[in-house]
């Protein structure tokens, strides 16, 4: 065994066994940590949705301005940033936020099921429709994101002839089909319910809620959900009514 004998080996093994998990791991494993990750990632996605909705509404100003906006998104930060680098950076942050949000939600759901293996005898009468459908809403939105990217970003499932660099025509093509409108509108309704409950929950998790502020926070959540839902749905409605063509 060498000059140090077996005692050194035993001590080394004991040291490795007694090694404590990192602070990040400890926080992530806790329920509070997962809820915090959900809250922060949700707010990142909410900020993106507000900006995305405002950009989408530029479609009402015509093809020239909307296509110019699409081109601008790819040149933000030039010449310091290379073409599309800023856009890809935003995409990476969003993907990380979506994954963190989904994983946290799934693990919290499983933890909740394990903690309460038997169903409640009586349903909670105060549970809102948004609360009861948060999980299904998340699944619907996850599937929608995949479809939306394949439709208007890569053109893989686009209904018409996808035209790179012509987002105006691509959007019109998508919402000229009944199924494109149905998929989009259903997803946006699910998004509104998700935001309505999620914003208030995030505020509570991050310590912004209180007895005096709860009513204001719920009002903000309702207004955000309504504005974002209406703003996003305004695009397919514009195409369906011929205002955008």
Explain the overall architecture:
The protein has 245 residues and is an all-alpha fold. The chain is 71% helix and 0% strand. The chain contains 10 helices and no strands. It has helices at 6-17, 23-29, 31-56, 63-75, 85-115, 129-132, 134-152, 167-174, 178-205, 214-240. The longest helix has 31 residues, at 85-115. The protein is globular and about 55 Å long. Mean pLDDT is 85; it is low at 124-128.
> What kind of sheet is the major sheet?
none
The end-to-end distance, rounded to whole angstroms, is 83 Å
What is the strand tally? Answer: 0
Helix tally equals: 10
Assign a percent range to the helix content.
Answer: over 70%
Structural class: mainly alpha
- Weakly predicted, low-confidence segments: 124-128
> Which term fits the overall shape?
globular
Range of strand content: under 5%
Kindly provide the radius of gyration, computed on alpha-carbon positions and rounded to a whole number of angstroms.
24 Å
Series of H and E elements: HHHHHHHHHH
Question: What do the pLDDT scores average to?
Answer: 85
